[in-house]
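User: Last request for today: this protein with flavin-adenine dinucleotide, please.
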Amino acid sequence: MKNKTYSIFGAGASGLYTAWRLLNGEPDSKQGEEKRLLAGDTLELYDWGKYDFTKENPGTRAAGARVCTWHYNNDSSQAYLELGGMRYSAWNGQPGAQNPGHRLVTTVINKLDLDKYSVPFNVSANTLFYLRTKNMYLNDISSSNPAPYNVDNYGATTSPDTGFSTIESLAVDPDASPKTRAEWCEFYQNGAINVELPESSVFQKGDKLKNIGYWNLLFDQLGSEGFQYTADGNGYTSNIINWNAAVAIQANDEFTPGSQYKTLTKGYSSLFNALFSAIVQLANQKGIIFDYQPDTRLHSILDQNGKVHFSLATREHPDKKAALKVSDAAWLAMPPYALELVAQATRYADVEGLDVLNHERVQNYLSSAIMQPSYKIGMFFDTPWWINDPNNKNNPVYQAPILAWEITMVVLEALAKKGFPLRYIEKINNCNTILNTPYASSAALIEAVVQCINERLTIEQEKELLAASQRNTIGPSITDTPIRQVVYFGNNALDRDAKPVYGILASYDDEQFTSFWEELEYGNNDAEKVPFSENYQPLIGPRKATAVMVKMLRQQLAALHFGPQADYSIIPEPLECRYMDWSLPPFNAGYHAYAAHYDVCDVQQKIRKPSQLISNADANIFIVGEAYSNDQAWVEGAFCTAESVLNDFFGVLPIIDDENYPFICPCGR
Ligand SMILES: Cc1cc2nc3c(=O)[nH]c(=O)nc-3n(C[C@H](O)[C@H](O)[C@H](O)COP(=O)(O)OP(=O)(O)OC[C@H]3O[C@@H](n4cnc5c(N)ncnc54)[C@H](O)[C@@H]3O)c2cc1C
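Assistant: Here's the final one, the structure of the complex with flavin-adenine dinucleotide:
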């Protein structure tokens, strides 16, 4: 029997996951046996960039593609910031459909033995806002202290996220709301406005949400000021663009109680180092040739009589065809902009064959993902000036809201060891409103516990409880200025004895705000030397910020934490400041969102093997990754599309029971 070659293009989340599962997956059938890789077969992995995977395979920046951990001074024992993806929603391992969490990311972390590095990554319950030059905390917004927006129906007297729930209530009955993945998928297809709306409203009862742009709907229902308050105050501009309203309603429901966000103490990139090492080890064990080729990009791709024919280009000359190769199956594990570049080269390639990517129906489905540029700027300081600290020259007027109290299972175990009454522990454990819920004040937590156990605590017990449950959140703070969100990482260095440095994401912004920072990537006297299409900064790694960018950041941080009149110099000069511009190639987007007027279930089912959209065609070319997944903007989506392709087209047994957790939308299948 002839040896097989499988080729993966893209060494980000979906590409690495595919390689790992091709090597460790169990066949579910005879077809699975035939398709699995055996000793002597070849598994190729190409990437346009070169990531720092292992000592033997070093690179220009941390592993993970759109995940990119950046350590102070590039020293992995020092504090770090996440300049790309940063956290996951932990799953409790229970199969029931209503258990929240990213099941594949949690499973991979567990299987790679990274559980020991997994820690909570909590969002503050009392956000600090700076909107229209007014500083305020979420808990202080009320009818006597409204947010500075002229919103109808007292809309500025509550959280800006109320706008999201107002829209959700047009289509979702709180007593019968979709709760499981399958129910939400059904909602994407059939969810409709189910309340009577005034005749003046553009949208009416019965209108299907999948055919409505979310911005259009927000504007129609909340009015100009209501829309603006929600848009400014939720922090992510990508949440309020004109995307598919059915999907937007589910996505903006994300911060509901019950989700426990986590990250890895070694940085999120370490997940991808571990995956790469596992791939190398498995290939060695099984005698499969693992051919990793960094700095090499897929240039064009066609199917010829059941074989995949492709051309490659080097990183040095990415637009010039450099080699021709043949494979039995190919995975395009890359985002839509990168796919479009391959489609363009294929369109003009003078070779016979089935050009899958350029078929009209495939192009139409590829257009269903809207590119969402995003930008992160990290800063390290020698003092945590955003909280009260004895080392600060000036303590902030508006402190970062990072202090929180949260009871987790680990906290309960610690309390048990300290001799905290077991009957209290049992009761708290059974009060599911308390567990994993962050409280913004110690008093609020004590009050909740007292209510739950129905007894008073002694002063000693209160102290023990607060000491065990206190943790810092990451904020964020939110503003309508171009920094948009500030995320507080602090001193998270693994080496606790080293001189501390404190990190923040001084800006986490997206959509039009990315262009605000782009002009500051240059000094005031610099002329543009590199065309936008050839600026591959995200592949090279976090780039040092210019003096003008740093000054602009300090101005906006000063207003957020010291008030609108504060001088920029009240914020200390950072020790180091670097950025990642996710609007640049080959990503051109930090994440993606489905457009309106698409059946996103059908897109998910068909685009992963695009020849399904072409009559009488069957090409072994697959598309995997976050962009066309059921978990856009998450690593989970990248893993899930990859798993679904292997299950449905390569006869690989699902990595976990998928009965209650369809990896992609089943669309009634
Ligand atoms: C700012 C930001 C914040 C985020 N926050 C989170 C978060 O908190 N949690 C979370 O889970 N996710 C988050 N995400 C999203 C997450 O990072 C992505 O969903 C995920 O990493 C995407 O993986 P992927 O495999 O689909 O694609 P990518 O990571 O984009 O990998 C694609 C790879 O393909 C390569 N490539 C491109 N073209 C070619 C070619 N022609 N030939 C060969 N190789 C090519 C690229 O170099 C790249 O390495 C965030 C992303 C960003 C940018």
